[in-house]
Structures are given as structure tokens and as C-alpha cells.
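wait is this the right file?? whatever heres the structure
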């Protein structure tokens, strides 16, 4: 899909990777509608984008409010007409031993990360099927291999990956295409950077611009799935599929669980 003059609804646009995605799509000529809770954060993104000659509208909304999404979509379409591209980028993570999570924490992670993207897509799809459209979701490598002490997040991201996988098959032959992006640890900004924990030495980090570039590429080329990580991740993931316990051993060797344990508050 061409991006010039398309209207993009981007969640998680107030900071982190969302800022890079917003700038990248605005530079490609899209009209951005950025959603997040923080009005200050959205206004900061707006200022950066307008400074570079782009267009960015703000929509302050809490994605925990699943039943309010229908009205939110009406508000979004009133800004610049129908939405051509949905980028589900907003996400949260909470680190804990599973039995120590509150029920509300688990609910919030599943709401923001999984239910909100599915509901936004459900609401936008009828119009997209008529006019054409693209849905891109930012999942995580934590949805490809479970992550200890961050398991509701892993569950939500695995859900996004499998939902996209099924939807891609369901949407085949229609005017709507769908992609999922799976980043590993991201440097410079975002939830991992903000934790001030060192990444596993063998895995390293990728730049946030690499995620934004992957989103752009996915829309332009109709990519099914893009992994954003240094090194050959796909063969390791395939090995983990063949033998989950061998996958566990690899994750231990890389020190992923140790890094996650440090992030328990
Ligand atoms: N950073 C990484 O290393 C990494 C790795 C793999 C995948 N990812 C994924 O990349 C995406 C972006 O992550 P990030 O690192 O940029 O995270 P971040 O810096 O924590 O930003 C998260 C974004 O989501 C928004 N958000 C959070 N809760 C929300 C809610 N209830 N309602 C509406 N918006 C909400 C935040 O805005 P407000 O707080 O203003 O609402 C913010 O704009 C996420 O889906 C994340 O899972 C990140």
C-alpha cells in the first residue's frame, strides 16, 4: 500500500517507539492520528512532527476502556475521514512471579496489548474491506518464546501473532492486508530502555528506528511478519518450536530470564 496522504491511526504515539513510527510515517506523507493517554506526550509528538512539516492529530484515550473504542473510532474518523492504516503499537508490561500478579494487572496487560488491538481492528474492518486498508501490530519476540516473570505480556503478544496469522489467511483476496512486527530488546527509548537494566549480552539491542522502518516496510510490501533483532533469530525460534525444552535451555544460556527477574519491581 502507498502511504502518501493515507490516514493512519497509531496507538502508543506519546513516547517510545511510537514517536519513531509517527515520524517515519509522517515523513512518508501520511496524516497521523496519534492515540495515547498522555496529552502532554501526544502534544510533544505533534510538535516534533509539525516541526518537520508533517500532520499529526492527537486523541487522548485509555485503551483499557474497551467498550469506549466504538465512540473513539467515530471521533478518529471525524478528524480526517476514514482510517486507511491502523498501527497497533501501544503496549504495557508488568514483571512479577505469576502468583504475585493482581487480577487487575493481568487484565490491564491483556486489555491494552491484546483486546484493544483486536477490537479496534474489528471496528475498522468493515470500512477497510470496502475502501482498502492495512493493519500493522507491534508484538514482540516475547510472543514467539515465553518470557519468565512477564508471562501475561508474553500471552498477549503470542495472541497478537496468532490472531494476525489467522487474519492474514481470512483476509486473503480482500482489499485489506495485515502484518505483525516482532522486536527484541530496543535501545535508546521505550519500555526496555526505561527499565535501566542491561540486555542479555549475547542478544544485544536494536534501534527504535529499526522498528519504525519495519512498520513502513510492512505496509509498503504487505509483509506477513518482520522480526527486528540482531543476529539469526528465526533458526533459534524454529529450534524452540521443535523442542520447547531446548528453547528453554537457549533462553537460559542467553540470560533472558535473569534479565527479566531483575525487572520485577
Ligand atoms: N521497547 C522494547 O524493547 C520493546 C520490545 C519489543 C516489543 N515492544 C513493543 O513495542 C510497543 C511500543 O513499546 P515502547 O517500548 O515504545 O513502550 P513505551 O515507551 O512504554 O510506550 C508505550 C506507549 O503505549 C501507550 N499506552 C500505554 N498504556 C496505554 C493505555 N492504557 N491507553 C493508551 N495508550 C497506552 C503509552 O502512552 P501513555 O502512557 O501516554 O498512555 C505510550 O505511548 C509495545 O507494544 C511493546 O510491547 C517494545
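ok assuming it is, sequence goes like this
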Amino acid at each position: 500500500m502507498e502511504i502518501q496522504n493515507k490516514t493512519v491511526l497509531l496507538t502508543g504515539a506519546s513516547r517510545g517507539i511510537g514517536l519513531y513510527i509517527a515520524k517515519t510515517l509522517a515523513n512518508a506523507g501520511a496524516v497521523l492520528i496519534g492515540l495515547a493517554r498522555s496529552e502532554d506526550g501526544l502534544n510533544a509528538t505533534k510538535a516534533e512532527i509539525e516541526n518537520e512539516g508533517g500532520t499529526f492529530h492527537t486523541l487522548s484515550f485509555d485503551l483499557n476502556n474497551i467498550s469506549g473504542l466504538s465512540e473513539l473510532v467515530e471521533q478518529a474518523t471525524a478528524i480526517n475521514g476514514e482510517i486507511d492504516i491502523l498501527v497497533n503499537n501501544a503496549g504495557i508490561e508488568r514483571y512479577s512471579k505469576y502468583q504475585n500478579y493482581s487480577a487487575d494487572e493481568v487484565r490491564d496487560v491483556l486489555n491494552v496489548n491484546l483486546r484493544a488491538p483486536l477490537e479496534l481492528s474489528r471496528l475498522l474492518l468493515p470500512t477497510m474491506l470496502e475502501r482498502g486498508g492495512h493493519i500493522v501490530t507491534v508484538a514482540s519476540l516475547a510472543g514467539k518464546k515465553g518470557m519468565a516473570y512477564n508471562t501475561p505480556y508474553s500471552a498477549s503478544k503470542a495472541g497478537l501473532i496468532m490472531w494476525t496469522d489467522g487474519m492474514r489467511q481470512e483476509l486473503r483476496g480482500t482489499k485489506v492486508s495485515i502484518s505483525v512486527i516482532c522486536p527484541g530488546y530496543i535501545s535508546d527509548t521505550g519500555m526496555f530502555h526505561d527499565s535501566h537494566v542491561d540486555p542479555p549480552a549475547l542478544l544485544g539491542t536494536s534501534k527504535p528506528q529499526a522498528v519504525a522502518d519495519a512498520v513502513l516496510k510492512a505496509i509498503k510490501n504487505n509483509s506477513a511478519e518482520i522480526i527486528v533483532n540482531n543476529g539469526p533469530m528465526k533458526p533459534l525460534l524454529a529450534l524452540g518450536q521443535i523442542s520447547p525444552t531446548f528453547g528453554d535451555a537457549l533462553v537460559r544460556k542467553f540470560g533472558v530470564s535473569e534479565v527479566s527477574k531483575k525487572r520485577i519491581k
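The chain has one domain: 7-262. so i think its the right one actually
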